[in-house]
Amino acid sequence: MDQRPSSVPIYQTATFSSADAGELGDVASDPRSGYAYSRISNPTSSALGAAYAELADGEAGIALASGMGAIHAALASQLKAGDRVVAPLAVYGSTRTQLIDTFARFGVQVDFADLTDEAAAAEAIAAAPTRVVYAETIANPTTVVTDHAAVARLAHERGATYIVDNTFASPYVCQPLALGADLVVESGTKFLSGHSDVIAGVVAGRADLIRGIEKVQIDTGATIGPFDAFLVLRGIMTLAVRVERHARTAAALGAWLERQDGVQRVLYPGLPTHPQHEVATRQFRPGVAGGMLAVELAGGRSAGWAVIDALTLTDLTASLGSVHTMVVHPPSTSQRQMTEAELAEAGITPGLLRVSVGLEDLEDLQDDFAAALEIARGAERPAVGV
Ligand SMILES: Cc1ncc(COP(=O)(O)O)c(C=O)c1O
Fold first, then answer.
1. Strand blocks (E) in the chain
2. Model confidence pLDDT, tens digit, residues 198-244
3. Which atom of ligand 1 is nearest to the CA of 69?
4. Over the stretch 34-44, which tens digit does the pLDDT of each residue have?
5. Ligand 1 environment, Cβ below 6 A
């Protein structure tokens, strides 16, 4: 049969048969020479790794079981006991926990700093020998934007590897490798797949660095299943049109929310009011600042919960990057591991809502938020302390 399939086939198999014992030995020891066992490599999963490398403009790429699996493999490929990581104060809660609970337990020193302040970043990186500098393009949940060119320069001056989580941006908005990052990691669960139906992770970068990650993936088994890889590949085909629409609606909704009673502040990198708007303008695709908003409500935690409960169009769930709008209260969800003091240090106020803007009509979202804000203003809920 010479006709090629239009989609990447799902190789739903654990094992691949070789012609003879010698060939099996070759493919089992080097995943690039062929396929033996799907924990090591699988054609559908390899196709996703290659597709992400192309999207991120990396020499090579790899797909893993989840975003956290990808972050772990990227970090573990670079770190050993006694090494030091510098990460931002504003960083996804589970990444912070992975650094503090898992890596620190194996003897890695983890220090957090404000990487948006160049002097503070330089001081933190120079304070002791640093093996890895880690940052997010757009931080979860505060939307703090990292100046990759500046942080990459500081990291490289000290001989550190610069690893970037690009999940909130997606490769359509930002290309961290072109700005100096050594490795770019993404949760494939979010914008890449785009429909909230799969858990996945990807990494791209130089081929020798990706080989190190492949080794960790094989050793730890954070392998993506072929059907899950297929779903992300299918999502990637519509990434550009989805993110264009997410961004257009987010920019308009953010500008409108800024003018509503009960809204203290809206943080969207595409708005001139965002503290790193200039960095975003320099680093992002022109006019496309992603689909994520942070909204600070004047009424604090109780107002945040009241708005979430009153919204009718949004999914009450803890993810992002989907066709459906999702609104979460980070202090109770994605950053739940942090104390009040740590939340304050990371810029997460009690009334902060994270909005992942979906593909709904702008007018419908405005109507829903207008009604929810009105209910929240009238709500007299007792403050819930956590
Ligand atoms: C910025 C960021 N990075 C990584 C992850 C982890 O991704 P996953 O849930 O696919 O493990 C998330 C999940 O929300 C995230 O928001």
1. 60-64, 84-88, 109-113, 132-136, 161-165, 183-187, 201-205, 263-267, 292-297, 326-328, 352-356
2. 999 999 999 999 999 999 999 999 999 999 999 999 999 999 999 99
3. 11
4. 999 999 999 99
5. 66-68, 92, 136, 140, 165, 167-168, 187, 189, 199, 201
